[in-house]
């Protein structure tokens, strides 16, 4: 997915406004993740209604208050705001993990054309390889909320290496906590048996 933004700059929505511009930084942020491209504008009434839903959707999948580990999800805001100040003001109300294109970047228009975005709000959902999962997931997010991420994850065929069912985790925890003690107990009993079996000199 980093190839989509090759040679581009993405801005992290934090107080420092960190920029991701190297291939390595972009790769670390975007690879093996479902990518949401959010086309919106702070002035658009429909966007003002939808943006808080999208914010909540994103936070519930990525914030440690709700989940133990952030989902394989990244969002890039593609602004249709009239001014840079309006874009900045809007982003201040959104999660710090959101990324955005710089206000004056013409690549925003290229993305609109590539994904046939006519109206906002629009959320294009992409696989890590850049294939489209959903041309506009606004209605899906409204209807299903965070539950739709699982469908996207399956469609993207993401390997969630850290995903364990609760029973798997219990079994792993039992095994990992008790195994060293069992080994030690086995060694001690084996040693005792050997000592008892030895003939006195």
UniProtKB/TrEMBL annotation:
Pfam families referenced in this protein's UniProt entry, alphabetically: Thioredoxin_8
What is one process in the GO biological process aspect for this record?
photoreceptor cell maintenance
The source's domain of life comes to Eukaryota
- Gene3D superfamilies reported for this sequence: Glutaredoxin (3.40.30.10)
Q: Which InterPro entries match?
A: RdCVF (IPR029520), Thioredoxin-like_fold (IPR012336), Thioredoxin-like_sf (IPR036249), Thioredoxin_domain (IPR013766)
Ranges where the Thioredoxin domain occurs: 1-143
Record's GO cellular component terms:
mitochondrion
**Which protein are we looking at?**
NXNL1 protein
Higher taxonomy = Eukaryota, Metazoa, Chordata, Craniata, Vertebrata
Q: Which gene encodes it?
A: Nxnl1
């Amino acid at each position: 997915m980093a190839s989509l933004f090759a040679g581009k700059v993405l801005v992290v929505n934090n107080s420092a406004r960190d920029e991701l511009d190297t291939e390595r930084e972009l790769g670390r942020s975007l690879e093996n993740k479902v990518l949401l491209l959010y086309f919106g504008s702070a002035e658009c009434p429909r966007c003002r209604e939808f943006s808080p839903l999208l914010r909540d959707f994103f936070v519930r999948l990525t914030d440690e208050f709700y989940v133990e580990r952030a989902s394989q999800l990244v969002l890039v805001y593609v602004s249709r705001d009239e001014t840079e100040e309006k874009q900045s003001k809007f982003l201040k109300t959104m999660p710090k993990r959101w990324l955005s294109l710089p206000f004056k970047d013409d690549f925003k228009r290229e993305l609109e054309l590539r994904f046939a975005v006519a109206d906002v709000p629009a959320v294009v959902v992409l696989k890590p390889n850049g294939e489209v999962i959903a041309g506009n997931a606004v209605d899906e997010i409204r209807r299903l909320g965070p539950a739709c991420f699982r469908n996207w994850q399956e469609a993207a065929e993401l390997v969630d290496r850290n995903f364990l069912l609760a029973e798997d985790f219990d079994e792993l925890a039992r095994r990992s906590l008790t195994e060293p003690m069992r080994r030690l107990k086995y060694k001690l009993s084996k040693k005792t048996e050997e000592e008892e079996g030895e003939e006195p000199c």
